[in-house]
From TrEMBL:
Coiled coil: none annotated. It holds the Pfam family Glyco_hydro_9. It is an enzyme of class 3 (hydrolase). Belongs to the glycosyl hydrolase 9 (cellulase E) family. Gene3D superfamilies: 1.50.10.10. The keyword Transmembrane helix does not apply. It comes from Setaria viridis (Green bristlegrass). Keywords: Carbohydrate metabolism, Cellulose degradation, Glycosidase, Hydrolase, Polysaccharide degradation, Signal. This is Endoglucanase. PROSITE patterns: GH9_2, GH9_3.
């Protein structure tokens, strides 16, 4: 007997969901990819995003010096740092998050990086050096952005040619920006952890600056996108989640970096007010709550000397992790594409997938070291299952997906060749020394030709909810790379490079 169409549709949906559940939870096969090569490329990418005077060994050889007078109009040196994505602006909030995640990758996964560890540390230092200057050059001031984004987005110029205004934006006690100041504090503190053994003196400088930035953030509260900077940071990097999550995130990092009990006291006293009691299911440059809880759960799980008062963070970390495991969450289950990629948002979705992948691997290691697990929907989920799920996300990025394409430039036989990225799309200065003007550059944006330069290691925004991807430079939601997409992936790739069996 034929079933009604609605029943057939429901059956197909249920069957597809069951198939995806089996796909995501099946035992992981032997290594399908050269994770060490992917790790190396993911780090090289950051050398293509550098601003300032490039060092002699910069491996993205088609890049040149840029932004050499950043901050000069305010008599402050703001050269260096990273361009966030395909434009020529130095946005402080995503740059700080990028640096935090690179530093966390080195701190937790550095031992798996092998010969790439010095390069990973160099990537952290390039961001941390800039943030150090931004946080300490002027008393009670944090410089949070260089470049007028509205003017920049009216041009398509190489960083080496840009002549749009290099306006400087700052937060102070009178114009607060607790979100960006606290994220800067977190980045400096995490970097202090990453350099604790490799360069103790530098680590100490970073920690001192982190405390200074945190004091500015906590004493003078407010969101940087709600005040006078709103027109410069919105809609590009508005702080949609508010500043509370960054304050708690920064305090957690400062405790890990300093082991100063006052920061743990701050967490205990202010946690609920700052969002510790919220179940949240996303982690990104804007919303730090899930990352904070995983970081604090590490303290609770530490064998033989659990930090009291952190049970809440373990419970909420479990809820977040369970939301990622198909078929186990009692509410707010995560969405996956038919091919198995975690899907959160329509534009630049890959940033959410790589950030969640990092937390899966990090939390799995914290659980394993404590001999613990997670109970999801009444079922025990072992750390190995979380690692397997994370690996499937990594493998999807590297080419195990319905399109059969790698979403990392330069990795594998097929990858995006038309990035929404000024420098990659236009002839390099050494090939075309003459300046290419603001309007003239748009012919490269709208061209269907492959990129003139290979932005090795760049991971793009990625496919849509149905695994569809169009390699079109105008489609920035899918083809624009960003530092905060790559940064969490560095840690995950390091783990798989160091542990995979080939």
């Amino acid at each position: 007997m034929a079933l009604p169409k609605s029943t057939n549709r429901r059956s197909r949906v249920l069957a597809a969901a069951a198939a995806l559940h089996l796909l995501l939870l099946a035992p992981a096969p032997a290594a399908a990819f050269n994770y060490a090569d992917a790790l190396a490329k993911s780090i090289i990418f950051f050398e293509g995003q550098r601003s300032g005077k490039l060092p002699p060994g910069n491996r993205m050889t088609w890049r040149g010096d840029s932004g050499l007078r950043d901050g000069a109009q305010h008599n402050v040196d703001l050269t260096g740092g990273y361009y966030d994505a395909g434009d020529n602006i130095k946005f402080g909030l995503p740059m700080a998050f990028t640096t935090t995640m690179l530093a966390w990758s080195v701190a937790d996964f550095g031992k798996f990086m092998g010969a790439e560890l010095p390069h990973a540390r160099a990537a952290v230092r390039w961001g941390a050096d800039y943030l150090l200057k931004a946080a300490t050059s002027t008393p009670d001031t944090l410089y949070v952005q260089v470049g007028d984004p509205n003017q920049d987005h009216r041009c398509w110029e190489r960083p080496e040619d840009m002549d749009t205004p290099r306006s400087v934006y700052a937060v102070t006690k009178d114009t607060p920006g607790s979100d960006v100041a606290a994220e800067t504090a977190a980045a400096l503190a995490a970097s202090a952890v990453a350099f604790r053994r490799a360069d103790p003196a530098y680590s100490s400088r970073l920690l001192h600056a982190a405390m200074r930035a945190f004091e500015l953030a906590d004493r003078h509260r407010g969101s940087y996108s709600d005040g006078s900077l709103g027109g410069a940071v919105c809609p590009f990097y508005c702080s949609y989640s508010g500043y509370q999550d960054e304050l708690l995130w920064a305090a957690a990092w400062l405790h890990r970096a300093s082991n100063n009990a006052s920061f743990m006291s701050y967490v205990r006293a202010n946690g609920l007010q700052l969002g510790a009691g919220d179940d949240d299911f996303s982690f990104s440059w804007d919303d730090k709550r899930a990352g904070t809880k995983v970081l604090l759960a590490k303290g609770f799980l530490r064998r033989n000397h659990n930090l009291p008062g952190l049970e809440l963070y373990k419970a909420h970390s479990d809820s977040y992790i369970c939301s990622l495991v198909p078929g186990t969450a009692s509410f707010q289950p995560s969405q996956y594409t038919p091919g198995g990629l975690l899907y959160k948002e329509g534009g630049s979705n890959m940033q959410y997938a790589t950030a969640a992948t990092f937390l899966l691997v990090a939390y799995a290691r914290y659980l394993r070291s404590a001999g613990a697990g997670v109970v999801c929907g009444g079922r025990e989920v072992a750390p190995a299952e979380l690692v397997a799920l994370a690996r499937r996300q990594v493998d999807y990025v590297l080419g195990k997906n319905p399109a059969g394409t790698s979403y990392m430039v330069g990795f594998g036989p097929r990858y995006p060749r038309r990035l929404h990225h000024r420098g990659a799309s236009m002839p390099a200065v050494r090939e075309h020394p003459g300046r290419i003007g603001c309007d003239e550059g748009f012919r490269y944006l709208h061209s269907g030709e492959p990129d003139a330069n290979l932005l090795v290691g760049a991971v793009v925004g990625g496919p849509d909810a149905r695994d569809g991807f169009v390699d079109d430079r105008d489609g920035y939601g899918q083809t624009e790379p960003a530092t905060y997409i790559n940064a969490p992936l560095v840690g995950a790739l390091a783990y798989f490079a160091g542990t995979a069996k080939y």
